[in-house]
Amino acid sequence: MKPHFATLSLLFLAACGGAAAPRPAETPAMAECRAEAERSPGAQAMFSRMNLQNPNNLDRVEREREAVVNRAYADCLTRRGIVRGGGVEPVRRSGL
Hints:
By secondary structure, this protein is an all-alpha fold. Helix content is about 60%, strand content about 0%. The chain has helices spanning about 1-15, 30-40, 40-50, 55-80.
């Protein structure tokens, strides 16, 4: 039994070691871009597409709204000449 506990503890420690690095603090320009992105016409239009009685619709529209806000935020940062951190595009969940 002891070898199994040792293996589990090693797996647990290995999983904890891959924690994400802390994000840098948001600058005032980044905060302005985030607020601008939330107020963008595309993000505001998503509210009219929400059906509060349908949880599947809420989930789908919220994911679409998040993508619109992220795109508007990235566009604002680009216009201001602020380099956004690298990375990969987030995985899009299927609607099923």
